[in-house]
Amino acid sequence: MKVGNTELLMNIKFNINYQLVTGTPCFSLVATGYITELIIMDIKLAEDIKHWRCVKGATWRKVAHYAAEVYPDRGFLDGNQIEGQELCFEAAKFLGEDSRDMPWNY
Q: CB 3.0-4.6 Å disulfide test: which of 74, 76, 90, 96 passes with 67?
């Protein structure tokens, strides 16, 4: 989106969280640059992302690759670094952790 020569939506993130009971989906609308998507986080996806990032030591790009490979119906961007970072952020938040701390951020 442009207003004159000023580009908008650069690294803007909107989160809409509905987590009524532990394990219910967490919905996040993410707008980063020109990528806008709805991430529906559930316990299985959050645990998979944590395993890829914290146990296997996957980079954000690799997390996005694994997510696209394991969940092809979700429309994840294969190998996209920003996608992987957002997935890690949302998974950590869903699990009650901080993605800026170890073992998420190394």
A: 76
Give the ranges where 1-106 is alpha helix by DSSP (H). Answer: 43-50, 60-70, 81-94
Range of 78's domain? 2-94
Closest of 64, 62, 61, 67 to residue 44, by C-alpha: 67
Tell me, yes or no, whether 101 lies in a domain: no
Under 8 Å between Cβ of 60 and 76:
no
CA-CA-CA-CA dihedral for 65, 55, 30, 95, to nearest 10: 150
Sheet holding 26-32, edge to edge: 12-13, 26-32, 35-41
DSSP for residue 78: T
- For 62-77, write each residue's pLDDT tens digit: 999 999 999 998 888 8
Whether 105 is covered by a domain: the verdict is no
Give residue-wise pLDDT tens across range 75-94.
888 889 998 999 999 999 99
